[in-house]
Amino acid sequence: MSIHVKDLNLFYGEHQALFDINLNIPDQSVTALIGPSGCGKSTFLRTINRMNDLIDSVRITGEVNVDGHNIYNADTDIVSLRKRVGMVFQRPNPFPMSIYDNIAYGPRIHGIKKKAVLDELVERSLKQAALWDEVKDRLNKSALGLSGGQQQRLCIARLLAVEPDVLLMDEPTSALDPISTLKVEELTQTLKDRYTIIIVTHNMQQAARISDTTSFFLNGILVETDQTDKIFTNPSNQKTEDYITGRFG
Predict the structure, then answer these.
(1) What is the pTM of this model?
(2) Angle, to 10 degrees, between the axis of helix 148-160 and the axis of helix 99-109?
(3) Which of 52, 110, 117, 237 qualifies as a FRET site for 82, CA 20 to 30 Å off?
(4) 82, 93, 85: which is closest to 155 by C-alpha?
(5) pLDDT tens track of the chain, all 249 residues?
């Protein structure tokens, strides 16, 4: 599913956090958003499924077109949007229930009740998240008993169970150990054949490893976006080069 952002501005009250963002995000690929803390990466990510709506002072102008529809139009069904555009947060947030019920929660909310269908969805989603072999014998045990890395993959599986088109990942490995981080990175490479993935990361090596396209944000401005290998070897903007070479940030 393609995403086209046009002239996007975002304000927290009187403070402007995003300035005239124009960005086309390709389908079935990984797009990394990089930049120093507070530069607008996560704020931008949350505009794509309207998570910023939960903040009273936020005002947005411009367009975010998901599959040709501006999601900021008045006729947008927010529940349907967040089903199609799912989000994984910085810290794993499994529900305090069984592994099985974590995965089945979303499908049940959307009306799926038959156990055979739920069983199939749970197994498929856990397999897609590369977690099935680790948990198949304890599906009825609490998800809170999983390791941090397993919990993050469980949260990804929980998203996949409602069959989204887009996965938004807000620093999904920042709280994980190196081995768990590698598993999540490998997972993104597997999933991009079926999903559009956008990932916020402070780890530039991670962006270089897993993304196809990289966008560099600075002070709420999209400075540059290009193929990842070009961004890291021959950026067009001096500010991008200064950031990736460690001169600031």
Answers:
(1) 0.94
(2) 20
(3) 117
(4) 93
(5) 889 999 999 999 999 999 999 999 999 999 999 999 999 999 999 999 999 998 999 999 999 999 999 999 999 999 999 999 999 999 999 999 999 999 999 999 989 999 999 999 999 999 999 999 999 999 999 999 999 999 999 999 999 999 999 999 999 999 899 999 999 999 999 999 999 999 999 999 999 999 999 999 999 999 999 999 999 999 999 999 999 998 876
Distances (CA, A) of 151 to 3, 183, 201, 206: 28, 12, 19, 20
Q: Quick one: tokens of 116?
A: 């055979």
Q: Report the 3 state secondary structure along the chain.
A: CCEEEEEEEEEECCEEEEEEEEEEECCCCEEEEECCCCCCHHHHHHHCCCHHHHCCCEEEEEEEEECCEECCCCCCCHHHHHHHEEEECCCCCCCCCEHHHHHHHHHHHCCCCCHHHHHHHHHHHHHHCCCHHHHCCCCCCEHHHCCHHHHHHHHHHHHHCCCCCEEEEECCCCCCCHHHHHHHHHHHHHHCCCCEEEEECCCHHHHHHHCCEEEEEECCEEEEEEEHHHHHHCCCCHHHHHHHCCCCC
Record the tokens describing residue 88, joined without a space. Answer: 């994984």
